[in-house]
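Action item from last meeting closed. Structure (294 res):
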């Protein structure tokens, strides 16, 4: 029995596709990251980034922390900062769903909304200005090695164990890229033949949690050599797949999970045989005020 909320981060279940995957020679599993206590895969990175920084003495309870986020990382950081008694300001574009803003505030974080015209890049610029001018310390998920190392230590080993080392393909949306970098690093150490597939939006698509970054904003933790293949999905494909996941598989998730599942199913159709694991990175309840399920 666990008596510490932080012990509940990780060890999320794998669920096999019962309906959407129609290739009898391929098994497709969904890694259910919404089962983390903060509701997303970002709990893993947030815990490792904060815990490791405290252990190193990078900051303490007197520090002013700040981070730009599109949502899930902010919720995870708000929850974990609250547990450790830390003050944190989270910066998001103003078009973030109200559930995300309210959840961060519920955990005790200060939330600042920046113009949606400049997107997450504008939120990042705001946070960096506060660091430069006002003595804030940035968590900096985009350049923080403790982000991807969380997945090297937990996500990769869990997938390896739960597939009994038989996984052939790993599919993940790419946002900060921490999930795919850490999981790839671990799985490739176990078996270099495992194929790592990253999912990006098509040029005309906007999918929360999946990005095709301008070069100057490309996450510093990203290493292209750790991704064997990139697959693009459209906004409409990601939306429709999120809806189908809920209706047909009983998996309630956001649009980025729909994007990853779209790529995973496309892959399943190509393969003669294999075991695919696709990340379902959060829960659908934080998108109810958007038009995703409307």
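Sequence:
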């Amino acid at each position: 029995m666990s008596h510490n909320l932080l012990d509940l981060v990780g060890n999320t279940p794998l669920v096999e596709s019962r309906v959407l995957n129609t290739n009898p020679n391929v098994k497709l599993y969904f890694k259910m990251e919404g089962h983390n206590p903060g509701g997303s895969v970002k709990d893993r990175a947030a815990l490792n980034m904060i815990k490791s920084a405290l252990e190193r003495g990078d900051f303490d309870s007197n520090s002013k922390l700040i981070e730009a986020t599109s949502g899930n990382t902010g919720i995870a950081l708000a929850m974990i900062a609250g547990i450790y008694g830390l003050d944190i300001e989270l910066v998001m574009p103003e078009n973030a769903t109200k559930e995300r803003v309210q959840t961060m505030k519920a955990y005790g974080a200060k939330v600042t909304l920046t113009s949606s015209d400049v997107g997450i890049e504008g939120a990042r610029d705001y946070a960096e200005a506060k660091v430069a001018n006002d003595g804030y310390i940035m968590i900096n998920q985009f350049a923080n090695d403790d982000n991807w190392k969380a997945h090297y230590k937990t996500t990769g080993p869990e997938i390896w164990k739960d597939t009994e080392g038989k996984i052939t393909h790993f599919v993940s949306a790419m946002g900060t890229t921490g999930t795919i970098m850490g999981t790839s690093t671990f799985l490739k150490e176990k078996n270099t033949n495992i194929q790592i597939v990253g999912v990006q939006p098509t040029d005309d698509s906007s999918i929360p949690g999946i990005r095709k970054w301008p070069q100057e904003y490309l996450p510093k933790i990203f290493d292209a050599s750790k991704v064997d293949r990139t697959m693009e999905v459209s906004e409409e494909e990601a939306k429709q797949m999120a809806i189908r996941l809920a209706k047909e598989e009983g998996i309630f998730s956001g649009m980025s999970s729909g994007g990853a599942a779209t790529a995973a199913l496309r892959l399943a159709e190509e393969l003669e045989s294999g075991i695919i694991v696709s990340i379902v990175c959060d829960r659908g309840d934080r998108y109810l005020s958007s038009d995703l399920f409307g």
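Note appended to the action item: Residues 42-138 form a domain with the Rossmann fold fold (CATH 3.40.50.1100).
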